[in-house]
User: What shape does this take?
Amino acid sequence: MSDIIFQHHSPEGSFTQHQPHRRAVPARRRQRYTLRSIIIGMIAGLAVSTMLFGMIVVGGYGYFQILGLILPGVHVGSVQLGGMTTGRAAAKINATWNNQTEIVIAVEDQEWKAPFSDFGIALDAMATAQRAANVGHNETIPVEMADTLRSILRGWPIEPVVTLDAEVARAGLTKWAETINVPPVDASLQLQGGEVVAIPGRTGYTLDVEASLAALSTDPGFLLKQGYLPLVLAPIAPRVADVSAGVEEAKKLLATPLQVTVYDAITDESIAFSVEPEQIADWLVVESTDNGPHVVVDDAKTITYLSEIDETLSDGRFIDPERNAGAISQALLTGQPAWLVLSHPATIYDVQRGDTLTSIAWDQGIPLWLIMGANPNLDFNALDYGQTVSIPSRDVLMPLPIIPGKRIVLSITDQHLWAYENGSEVYSYVISTGIDRSPTQPGVFQVQTHELNAYASIWNLYMPHFMGIYQASSDFWNGFHGLPTAVSGNVLMWADQLGRKASYGCIILDLDNAETLYNWAEDGVVVEIRE
Assistant: This one.
């Protein structure tokens, strides 16, 4: 039935329209009806979603089971393997992990990189892929479905299968220990702004190879996952951690420059220089003793310093550390100047026309038996022009510590001897040297033996106040002595021949002069014999 619209005229003459009468619906009832509709819709939607999700899970489960694929959400580190076959997963794992060729080695503020192969580490890509493929497979259906759901919702991390070759790892760690190890630093003294300052020691460390290997063996996969090498470091304490107690002692040693004299016994030349306290401070170290810290001189550092002086010397001369061991430290500790002796190298002599072994030995100032010993394969009876002859160092003729300030000089031509002390002549004597068929060898030697009354069995002679200076052969000494006495007949020989060649190679003085020289010249005094 259609609505009927009534019209009437208003008093003003216009028409007014009237709507039909309808029953009003309460507002609260309309609101309740709307909320219920929403809830019903939500429940229906959820049911549909759950059903769809279940269908997806069931369908996905069937899909991955039938095709034997790795479940979605399964991963090795950052490598997602879901939906892959075992072979494809192995290839991807291998490409991602085994192509990481470098591992970080970090110690304190230092960092290095090394190949994984240095430490015997390798990832088994196929075994790892198989481990991933086993998730949600080969179980009961409820378990497999539960695993599938969990993997989809939460993911499923897989630990990589890592192998470790312990021997390779040990060798790698041992090799890298040479780079990683840091030695401790002993406390030291420095001169800063003219003041002695104590510098504290610093602890070092060494790589504990076996402990590091044990840590690596516990979880070799850690190396691949974290990207750095687990190291076990053993601290090494310095021998001397504090040197503050040695400051006053060091101040005394650094009070004045050290005076050094380098002496060349061959040329009788001296080179003098001073070492400033700043340099000396670098040589000082402190050693712990039962009586507490004690300042000493590090001989190794002084040797390094002296080797720099060698570069300024000519003719190959050098300062031999063994020959001058402790000379500088002794000088510093006693407050005396340091006295060092130069050494000389072996040389090569080019044979000239007319040379003989005797002439070479004479010119080089080396007894011929020593030259023969240095050239065992050389035929000295057939020397040719241009041949080379090895000449031993002249230092072999002065094996004892040299006595500073004393020197004996004698002239074969003048048949005279002079003795000097600190540059001043103290004795001047007439002498007799060897006859031409048994000459006295020119050269630079030193007093090496003292014997009050030596016996010469070859000539059946007694030689009073004998001082040996060089070996004319491997078992025969020449030296200084007083006028000899022939055992047969008890005859004093050559008393009237002083000043002329008379002996069999020794240097003869009268009895009083021989005794004086014997008492004045200690073993080690340099003897220079000139032609």
